[in-house]
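Z., the sequence and structure:
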Amino acid sequence: MDMDRKERTSQKVEELFHQPAAGEAGTDPEFMQILQRYIFGDLCYTGSLDNRMRELVTITVLTVIQTLPQLKAHLAACLNVGCTPVELREAVYQCAPLIGFPRTLNAIAVLNEVLTASGVSLPLPKQGTLTDDEERYERGLAMQEPVYDAALRDCCAWLPKPFDEALPRFLTEFVLGDLQTRSGLDRRTRELLTVVALAALGGAEGQLKNYVARARKSGSTKEEVVCALVHAGAYMGTTRLFNALNAVRTELEA
């Protein structure tokens, strides 16, 4: 027999948080029921992504928009559904180029609090694969599409020296060389989470198109990309969801 929304919500909340769904207690029981039944009764049962991937999507969005109390709860949920501490760390680390170091450090502090409370020893095992600083550029460039590399250089060509050459190099070394060469998350997951992060950030529609193309090349299906964005919409809001969907429509229809 199919479950109704209330039953689906109760099942999913128990799976993720190991606690009952919202009832009549608290100051805003009606709102909490609306929230939980939409996210955990509807969204979580729509589309192909499993609990693990949905929670990685969720913590990525919450890191980007800096809703730290909710991030704490969902980091614990990630552990409950089988995500490893290393996967959580990598998902947070790779947000740094998009949101900056201070906000990334805020999220890392929350992550470390959750891991410590769960009995995980810190620091976690290293995941860097570079052997020296010289590799940062070469490895980063190897991950970069030739057309994107040319476009990056063109868009920075107007800058005064040394920034016309330094900025493209910094982006290749830092965004790709330092972070995207790390182990701990597979390429497909990294690319899909970057799509979600750019959507949550807002105002990055041009980059979002590029990363949807990268996500598709890395193995994510059209349905998985849409599922990740729609799931993220509950946390980043429907305006950013539809901005993202409209921005990547051409790439997904191709």
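Residues 62 and 70 are 7 Å apart (CA to CA). The two ends are 39 Å apart (CA to CA).

Let me know what you think.
H.
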